[in-house]
From TrEMBL:
Protein name per its UniProtKB record: EAL domain-containing protein
Organism, as annotated: Brumicola blandensis
Segments forming domain EAL: 21-276
Domain of life of the native organism: Bacteria
Length: 277
């Protein structure tokens, strides 16, 4: 039975949710306009398990707002996507990434930076030309950047997505399919999407050392990726046992807290210089 009390509590909850959503939209748009330093780009290395070297890193956005406090990217990225301004977030991200790449290079650190993009970005050809123009101005080759996208975002117009991704690859950017194995994932994407790298979702990796069923999945996905000429990245590697298992399965890259947490560019430079296995 639905009581008056239930309705009141339910609408309170809804109101809270929408108020927060609205604040995220207002505050994030304001920050993107004014650049008050609330946004930051953190970096997490991907360890190449064959060469025992870090050749690439993932850029992960952070947002600390004075009203809302620290907001998880899981939350505000989804809001920006739904509200239709994720492109402005992505623009901030690649501009910051290119500044950081320049400072990495000043420290003789040559890593490829992977940025996360959404379907709206893939469908926007202007984004690609702006990234390329900014690289050109800074005399950087496309190989300094790569793109990770979550396959679920692509479903709406797969044909167009495939076409856009092919153009990005032709331009020299590596493409990774993110979060493979979750949500919307479909095996048919493997043959349809032009991608270089498959990132197996951390939900299959976190307990790799404890769960035989996860090991079966990861082993099979690694084989599948290789059959489609893709390299495989495992994210969520939290201990050495999992890392060794991944190495045995022929996984090319491992990423996770066991290797390094996401850290800011200055800390990353220090970490990279002192890292050894
Ligand atoms: P993702 O792309 O799948 O990123 C991996 C997430 O796993 C990151 O969370 C990372 O901090 C976390 N992680 C890394 N290693 C470990 C580990 O060993 N254990 C555990 N438990 N977690 C680990 P984060 O930074 O909170 O980002 C969450 C999601 O937000 C990302 O998932 C991505 O989908 C999205 N995101 C983050 N930055 C950006 C961005 O700049 N643009 C876009 N469009 N999306 C972003
Ligand atoms: Ca990612
Ligand atoms: Ca992922
Ligand atoms: Ca994710």
């Amino acid at each position: 039975q639905i009581t008056r009390q239930f309705i009141l509590e339910f609408s309170d909850e809804l109101e809270e949710k929408y108020t927060r959503r609205l604040s995220i939209i207002t505050e994030l748009k304001k920050e993107l306009r004014e650049n008050n330093g609330e946004l930051a780009l953190f970096y997490q290395p991907k360890l190449n398990l064959i060469q025992n070297k870090v050749l690439s890193v993932e850029a992960l956005i952070r947002w600390n707002n004075k009203e809302l406090g620290f907001v998880s990217p899981e939350d505000f990225i989804a809001v920006a996507e739904h509200a239709g301004f994720i492109g402005e977030v992505t623009t901030w991200v690649y501009q910051q990434a290119i500044r950081d790449i320049i400072s990495f290079r000043d420290h003789d650190i040559d890593v490829m930076v992977a940025i996360n993009i959404s379907a709206q970005d893939v469908m926007n050809p202007e984004l690609l030309s702006m990234v390329m123009a900014l690289l050109r101005v800074n005399e950087l080759p496309p190989s300094v950047l790569s793109f990770e996208m979550t396959e679920g975002h692509l479903v709406k117009d797969l044909g167009k997505a495939v076409q856009q991704l092919a153009i990005m690859r032709e331009a020299g950017f590596k493409i990774a399919i993110d979060d493979f194995g979750t949500g919307y994932s479909s095996l048919s994407y493997l043959s349809k999407l032009p991608a270089d790298i498959l990132k197996i979702d951390k939900s299959f990796v976190l307990k790799l050392d404890q769960q035989e069923s996860d090991r079966k999945i990861v082993r099979t996905v690694a084989k599948l990726a290789h059959d489609f000429n893709m390299e495989i990245v495992a994210e969520g590697v939290e201990n050495q046992e999992s890392l060794e298992i991944l190495r045995n399965y022929g996984c090319e890259y491992a990423q996770g807290y066991h290797i390094c947490r996401p850290i800011d560019a200055a800390k990353y430079i220090e970490w990279h210089k002192t890292f050894s296995l």
